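note to self: dont lose this again. the chain is below, predicted strucutre after it. 370 aa total, dont forget to put it in the shared folder this time
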Amino acid sequence: MASLNQQKLIKFTDILDNLQSKKLTTDADLLKRAYVKGAKWSTGKIRISNEPVIAHLVKASFELSLFTNDEVCIAGGLLHEVIDYGDNSKERYEIGKDIFKYFSKDLIELITNVAKHTEFDSKKFRGGQEEKSLLNYPSPVEQELERNMLFSKDPRILLIMIADCIDNTRDLKFFRDSEFIKWYLDQNVKFRIPTAKRFGFLDIAERLSNETLAIKHRLSGEVSNIVYLDVIDIELYRVLTKNPELIRSLDWRVYEKLLADILETFGYEIELQRGTKDGGVDIFAVKRIDSLGPHRYLLQAKRWSNRIGIEPVRQLLFLHSHHRVTKSCLATTSFFTKGALELANQYKWQLELRDYEGIKEWINKAVNMK
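---
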């Protein structure tokens, strides 16, 4: 089955809706100007997937809206390829004038740095240079040393590049150039994903890791081990009860829906959020107890493979205080570090950490109640 992202065409308004769902004050004018200019500069340009370039820009920006609240960064997603669209010096000059006229120096520097390090990829995915060799491309080590210095100065450059790579990775299936496909996937595994994790962007790194794994299996003729489902039903519970390790193979949004269904089975009223993955709230659960009044709980779902450390627990503590809920829970398919467990124990009446074993316990309990 197709993923949730593939089932729905991402529109510009989805970006605004996503930010507004976080109850943020949104600079809609900046994002609209970026969208209009991105659409203008990409008019008539088509990706190798036969999709308009503007659709790719919107998808990259939408990914960013899931992982960050920085509107300049999100606007950068709508503009991140326009710098290198010029095929001659005159067109580049006109584009440059237009950019300086409509956008801040901060945004201009951001998209210029992104374009500098993604121009080769961008042209490939727009259907150009497909048959050209990679011999003239900078060595990965040399390139990563330069990029890491750049990322240290402005981590938003890395965020935009990873958002760009997520959609690019999905489109690798349209290439005939096996050399490029192998090189691009190797770059994901050896450099892009580890770098994103090193800079603390764990959720978006996991997102790119999922897409990389899925396309590898697809291109090899195997079935992807990332499972996408439309319905959470008793059959899924039975499968997970017999083979609990499959919990880790669920798409992150399906994992959230599974947790929501479990809590609903336990008698909670559920508010499943819009799928934001920026350290925000995934689920609110309300339980109405006559003697004590309603209790409201907050849950974060993290379908991670690595152990979860102290920082996500700190984020959970902040969200607990910000939303003034009764208790907050972080539910993961992985496990927690000693430091994370010790921190949560200091706030045992406010926080609960539920690891892989705890999720299995929930599933078994829910099956018996269904």
